[in-house]
Amino acid sequence: MFLLVTMPLWHPGQALILIIAIGTAGGLAMAATMAAVTGVAVRRLLP
Questions:
Q1: CB 46 within 8 A of CB 21
Q2: Does 24 fall in a domain?
Q3: Contact present, 5 and 31 (Cβ < 8 Å)
Q4: CB 6 within 8 A of CB 22
Q5: Residue-number span of the structural domain to which 30 is assigned
Q6: Is residue 25 part of a domain?
Q7: Alpha carbon of 20 to those of 17, 27, 32, 34, 40: distances in Å?
Q8: What does the angle CA 24 – CA 29 – CA 31 come to, to the nearest 5 degrees?
Q9: pLDDT tens sequence across 5-32
Q10: DSSP string, 31-45
Q11: Residue 41: CB partners within 8 Å, gap ≥ 6?
Q12: What is the pTM of this model?
């Protein structure tokens, strides 16, 4: 997820604040994906 979000948005020479925002968005997307996968797994494992 991180690469799917950040790679199309990041380009050399961008402002530092924009790079930080893109990295943050990628990190949040990655965290949301892991939370969703974990939630589905827990629901399937617990009765």
A1: no
A2: yes
A3: no
A4: yes
A5: 17-47
A6: yes
A7: 5, 10, 18, 21, 30
A8: 95
A9: 999 999 999 999 999 999 999 999 999 9
A10: HHHHHHHHHHHHHHH
A11: none
A12: 0.80
The rounded Cα 13 to chain-centroid distance in angstroms is: 22
Name the residue type at position 15.
A
Number of domains within the chain: 1
Q: What are the tokens at 39?
A: 């939630």
Spatial separation of the C-alpha atoms in residues 39 and 17, rounded to whole Å: 32
Query: CA triplet 42, 28, 7: central angle to 5 degrees?
Result: 120
Q: Locate 34 and state its tokens.
A: 């892991």
pLDDT at 47 over 90: no
> By C-alpha distance, which of 46, 44, 3 is closest to 23?
3
What are 44's two structure tokens?
Answer: 């399937």
